[in-house]
Amino acid sequence: MSARKGAEGGRSALWQIRTAIDPRQYWLLALGGLLAPLLAWGLASSLDGVDKVFLPGPADVLSRMWSWAVEDELAGDVAISTWRVVAGWALSAVIALPLGLFIGSYRAVQALLEPLTDFIRYMPAVAFIPLVMLWVGIEEGSKVAIIFIGTFFQMVLMVAEDVRRVPLAQIEAAQTMGASRGEIIEKVIVPSAKPALLDTLRVTMGWAWTYLVVAELVAANSGLGYAVLKAQRFLQTDKIFAGILMIGLIGLVIDQGFRLLHRKAFPYLAGRH
Q1: What is the pLDDT of residue 7?
Q2: Residue of higher predicted confidence among 160 and 42
Q3: Left (φ > 0), alpha (ψ -120 to 50) or beta: where does 124 sit?
Q4: Contact 262/269 with Cβ under 8 angstroms?
Q5: How far, in Å, CA of 61 to CA of 49, rounded?
Q6: Residue 213 dihedral angles phi and psi, to the nearest 5°
Q7: For 5-15, how does the pLDDT look when each residue is reduced to its tens digit (9 = 90+)?
Q8: Which fold has domain 58-267?
Q9: Cβ distance 218 to 132 under 8 Å?
Q10: 142, 132 contact by CB (below 8 A)
Q11: CA angle 39, 45, 48 (to 5 degrees)
Q12: How far is CA 83 from CA 116, 141, 182, 218, in A?
C-alpha cells in the first residue's frame, strides 16, 4: 500500500508547481521534447507533394551537415562564429556589469542613464550596420560591434534589475552596522545578486547568438551565419537547416554549461534552477 502511495506521489510530483522531479524523469521528458519536433519534421517532409527544396528531411540535412564538415570547413565556420559571438558578448558584459550595478544601486545614476539605455535598446541592431561599417570598417571588429550593440543595452537593464531585487532589509542592516557605501556594494549587493547576474549572462549569451546572422551580413566570407545567407542565394535549403541546427546545438551546449556552473556555484539554489 505504501509503495503504491509512493508511486502515486512520484507521478503527481510531475504536476506540482515548482516541485523537483526525479532526474531520470527530467531527462526523459527533455529527450521527448527534443525528439517530438524532429519526428514531426520527418513526417511532414515525407508527405507526397512536399518539395525538398522547400522542406528537406532530417536525413537530407544530416547528409548536408556531413559533407559540410568533410568538404567545406564546418569546423572553421563554427570556430569563427563562436569567437565573434563570445567576443561581442564578453565586451558587453565587461561594460554592462559595473554600469548596471551603479544604475541599480544609485537612483541618481538610474535617472541619468536608464532612460537613455531604454531609448537605444529599442533601435534594431541591423539599423546600425551602415554606421558600424563607416566607423569600424568591414573587418572582424564590425561583426563583434553588431553583436555588442545587440546585447549591451539589454544586459545593462537586466543587471540593474537584478541589483534592485536585492532585499532592502539587507542593505539597511549593513548600514545600521556602519558599513560604507563601497562595503555595501562589495559585501551585500554583489554577493546577493550573483545568482541572478549569472542567469542574466546566460540569457544574453542566447541573444548574442541570435544576432550572429545579422553580424555576418557585414562583408563576411566565413561563419555559420554567412553560410546560411550564401545557401539562401543558391536555394540550398538543406544547408540553411543545417546551419540553423548547428547554431541551436552550440547554443544548447553553452546554455547547459551555464546551468551547470550555476548549480556548482550556488548549490543551495539547485532545486530552483
Answers
A1: 47
A2: 160
A3: beta
A4: yes
A5: 19
A6: -65, -40
A7: 444 454 566 77
A8: MetI-like fold (1.10.3720)
A9: yes
A10: yes
A11: 130
A12: 29, 11, 35, 16
What is the per-residue pLDDT across 96-131, written as a single tens digit (0 to 9) for each? 999 999 999 999 999 999 999 999 888 888 888 888
CA 169 to chain centre: 32
Sorted by sequence, the CB contacts under 8 Å of residue 240 that are 6+ apart come out as 228, 231, 232
Q: Indicate the burial class of 179 (C-beta count within 10 angstroms; 0-12, 13-18, 19 or more).
A: middle
Cα separation, 62 vs 242, whole angstroms: 7
Band the pLDDT of 82: cuts 50, 70, 90.
Answer: very high
Nearest to 148 by CA among 220, 188, 94, 108: 94
Residue position matching grid coordinates 528537406: 56
Average pLDDT over residues 144-169: 93
For residue 179, what pLDDT is reported? 86
Q: Name the pTM for this structure.
A: 0.85
Mean pLDDT of the chain: 87
Burial degree of 48 (CB within 10 A; 0-12, 13-18, 19+)? exposed
- Give domain limits for the chain: 58-267
Cell of 29: 521528458
